[in-house]
């Protein structure tokens, strides 16, 4: 008798658990359905305000993807995946407005009204899926060999516009200094041809002037001027026209 009651209670509990979990699953499905219907309602919304909003959002998002892809391609010239972003953005910033200004509000309703033309009527019911498939296929195919008008030569423009910067960078080597027996020895590596004069100074005192630049030079630590409890010196690089290329500041505390 007791075992029969236990079995009956187990059956009742199992039924209760099933009745608890089953509506939860259905609620999740209903939320998903509501979300999908919300997305579709936004996609097919054809009021003028929605048309402008969706077209503008896709235009700027496409422009952002295109610009970001070109920048990534400039910094990662050997990578192929930035081409996907470039082509996707370049197509989206005109495909998006065309879709939500022409296709969705005008072309799709017209195709769905063509009941006598079965092909056109079918296309009207599957136009969105068809065009999205075509769009992504075109993106993948064009990314294999992007047209020249989609890819900006950002790296070349930076190189051409920054030739002076590159020359100055090439003209400014790294300065490494060591201290030994009250003597400071500094080395500029590499020493480019754009450096015509090297000056070493401390405070207002000029310690060394090299009219014929040398990669390594030495001066006395005793000649340095003490500034705020530390001795520091400056190494200035000049070109043939006397223009300053770079100035290094070092303190003896860090040598």
Question: Can you describe what's shown?
Answer:
The chain has 255 residues and is α+β, with helices and mostly antiparallel strands. The protein has two domains: 45-159, no CATH class; 162-254, Immunoglobulins (Immunoglobulin-like). The chain is built from seven helices and eight strands, in the order αααααααββββββββ. It has helices spanning 2-44, 48-75, 82-112, 118-125, 127-144, 154-161, 163-171, and strands spanning 174-180, 183-189, 197-202, 205-210, 216-220, 225-227, 230-238, 244-251. Strands 3, 4, 6, 7 and 8 form a five-stranded antiparallel β-sheet that branches. Strands 1-2-5 form a three-stranded antiparallel β-sheet, with no helix packed on it. A hairpin with a 5-residue loop joins strand 7 (230-238) and strand 8 (244-251). Helix 6 (154-161) packs across helix 7 (163-171). The radius of gyration is 36 Å and the shape is rod-shaped. The N and C termini lie far apart (94 Å). Residues 1-6, 8-22 and 156-172 have low confidence and may be disordered.
Secondary structure elements and pairings:
Layout: H1 2-44, H2 48-75, H3 82-112, H4 118-125, H5 127-144, H6 154-161, H7 163-171, E1 174-180, E2 183-189, E3 197-202, E4 205-210, E5 216-220, E6 225-227, E7 230-238, E8 244-251
Helix pairs in contact: 2-3, 3-4, 3-5, 6-7
